[in-house]
Design a protein that fits this description.
Belongs to the Rieske iron-sulfur protein family. GO terms for molecular function: 2 iron, 2 sulfur cluster binding; metal ion binding; monooxygenase activity; oxidoreductase activity, acting on paired donors, with incorporation or reduction of molecular oxygen. With 359 residues, the protein is of the alpha+beta class. The structure holds FE2/S2 (inorganic) cluster (FES).
Amino acid sequence: MSEHPTPNGVQDAEEPRVPRRVIGTPVKAGPGTLGTTAPAEEPIVHEGVEYPDERSARKAERVVALLFLVTFLATVAFIASYVVFQVGDIERTQVSNLALGGSLSVALLALACGVVVWVRRLMPKYNLIQQRHAMATDPDVRQEVNAIFLQGANESGFVKYKLLRRTLLLAAAPLGLLPLVLLKDMGPLPGTSLRHTVWKKGTRLLVEGSGQPIRAADFNSPGGILSVVPEGHEHDLNALAKATLILIKFRPEDLKPGTKLNWTHDSIVAYSKICTHVGCPAALYEQTTHHILCPCHQSTFDATDGAKVIFGPAARPLPQLPIGVDGEGYLIAQSDFNVPVGPSFWERGDAEAEARGQA
Ligand code: FES
């Protein structure tokens, strides 16, 4: 029989490899006795390394095993969810996403917790010290570099030939300014162009795509919606990026105070189609709720109430365009928008003041 030191610092006697039969009630082993399960209150420290005591190690082991078991079950649930919950419509897709996301989250969370408990409660603890090397270069090396640099400077004649030195500096100075010249390639400054669109008094509203002018009397079914562009700019993508409209016909009783009624014609309202969040086309219209929805980040606007924001990240309503009819009964603009269209970052400083002045 031989004895081996263990991390616990206990001299562990080698057990005979044949099974032993115990007759009667075994005598309880005392603390520190070989094979004891009695609790040791303090962690065991051996040569500066702290080991967990036997009882808390067993407890931690059970906790980690339980967490890994949860991971296993959640992973099985993930696979089962993938098979059971088929997508097809929005509701079934939501259920599938919920089941997949929920089970995967639980699996990853339990796995991470298990690993953390394992490391913190079961692994030995000791201080690791990494020595830093001195950052400064050796003084001899620095001296040598200095000497080489001075030798190079002397050999170049940079100090000796004044004319060369001065003309070199003269030649190098404009090079530093070149990036400023290249800034010009970024194009002209936008000026106030972002605050205005091509709409002006008398511009006819045309149906996007067909280019047909819109007779107000023909656009008479409440709930109808059209995508509209300004006459003369049907193919000007720069202009259309700001000027495209949606036109909606309401029942008079549907309109709420947020809508400027004197900017409508026969309960037909025109709003900018450019979402005030980051500029996607907000053209999904839900007829029963009168909601305009932007598909990019789900900003939702109440079309009956001045297109005010009722949901989502947009910070302000879709601007309303004043409209009327010309002598032939076609819908026309009464003016440009009175606020900048599109993302809110366009609406700054002077533009806001200008808008307030016009209001
Ligand atoms: S661009 Fe419309 S919600 Fe973001």
